[in-house]
Amino acid sequence: MKAKDLATPAKRVEFLYSDFTIGDAVKKMERCHYSMIPVIERNSARYLYSVSSGDILHRIVTAADSKAALADPLSTVRIERLTLSCNEDVDVTDLFELAVNQNYIPLVDNNGAFRGILTRRAILTFLMPAKEGE
After folding, report:
1. 3-state secondary structure labels for all residues of the chain
2. The predicted structure's pLDDT at residue 19
3. Is 74 exposed, middle or buried, given 0-12, 13-18 or 19+ CB atoms closer than 10 A?
4. Strands 8-9 and 47-52, sheet pairing
């Protein structure tokens, strides 16, 4: 089975645009209750990276002026942990090792455009043998 067959499509995933400010990111993450969120390029829809609430919080609290930091570009946030993406046509069975280290895997098409996410839960549920009697 291909990754895209188990994925949550991009239209159902909250994400940030790379031209957002830190304040924009905080507001969106607060609304959607994500602890990590994909960042995509606005014009091309290309997946760039994922940013965590911890990365954003660290940037704010280490700034000389934490209120002023909210107006800074999202690109000024240092990413502590790289979230690797994969092509949407990859076989799900090839993603186990990646899923061990990431809560989700961003899926991209052949042009790098963001197509959705494949959660660790979806991968494990697919790979786990069904229990007898269920």
Report:
1. CEHHHHCEEHHHCCCEECCCEHHHHHHHHHHHCCCEEEEECCCCCEEEEEEEHHHHHHHHHHCCCHHHHCCCEHHHCCCCCCCCCEECCCEHHHHHHHHHHCCEEEEECCCCEEEEEEEHHHHHHHHCCCCCCC
2. 97
3. buried
4. unpaired
In the chain, the domains with their CATH numbers are 3-127 (3.10.580.10)
> Over 90: is that where the pLDDT of 31 sits?
yes
Q: How buried is residue 98: exposed, middle or buried, by Cβ count under 10 Å (0-12/13-18/19+)?
A: middle
Q: What pTM does this model have?
A: 0.90
pLDDT score recorded for residue 59: 96
